[in-house]
Amino acid sequence: MGQRSNGRQAATAPDSAGGPSGTNRREQYHWATFPAVVSEGSVNYCATVDAQSPHAAYNGRQAYIVKADMSGNRVSSAVMGLVAGGKDFEIVTKMCAKYGLDPRNAS
Questions:
Q1: Is 3 helix (H, G, I), strand (E, B) or coil?
Q2: What is the DSSP string of 20-87?
Q3: Structure-derived torsion over alpha carbons of residues 18, 5, 67, 58, reported in degrees to the nearest 10
Q4: pLDDT in tens, the chain (107 residues)
Q5: Do the beta carbons of residue 24 and residue 55 sit within 8 Å?
Q6: Number of domains in the chain
């Protein structure tokens, strides 16, 4: 497993998928380990974000799963599969478990 870049581009995927959350942004991302080498095909990725939102559905710890298409060991595109928090956090956890992933292991 390799380390991933925590660049701003990576942070915008869960950011934009989580819906509007006002102008006072203080999200804290918890990154999971990304596979070191995936030259072609796709990879699933699960992690969490602590969102600060005036909208209850988007506030607090949110788990998410992303399917990333790979080309030449780089992400060429990605699709947000599901993002959920509260009692629905376990739905994402179960979905991630199908791929041997656990968003609770993100740090």
A1: coil
A2: ---S----EEEPPPBPS---EEEEEEEEEEEE--SSGGGSEEEEEEEEEEEETTEEEEEEEEEEEEGG
A3: -10
A4: 454 554 555 555 555 544 444 445 577 888 888 777 776 788 898 999 888 888 877 788 899 999 999 888 888 999 988 888 888 999 999 999 998 889 998 88
A5: no
A6: 1
Domain assignment of residue 2, yes or no: no
Structural domain of residue 15, as residue ranges?
8-105
Q: Which residue has the tokens 């990154």?
A: 31
Q: What are phi and psi of 72, to 5 degrees?
A: 60, 40
CA distance 34 to 62: 19
Query: Is residue 3 domain-resident?
Result: no
> For residue 102, which of 93, 31, 10, 65 has the smallest C-alpha distance?
93
Q: Tokens 């602590």 map to which residue?
A: 50
Q: Which two tokens stand for residue 26?
A: 């203080």
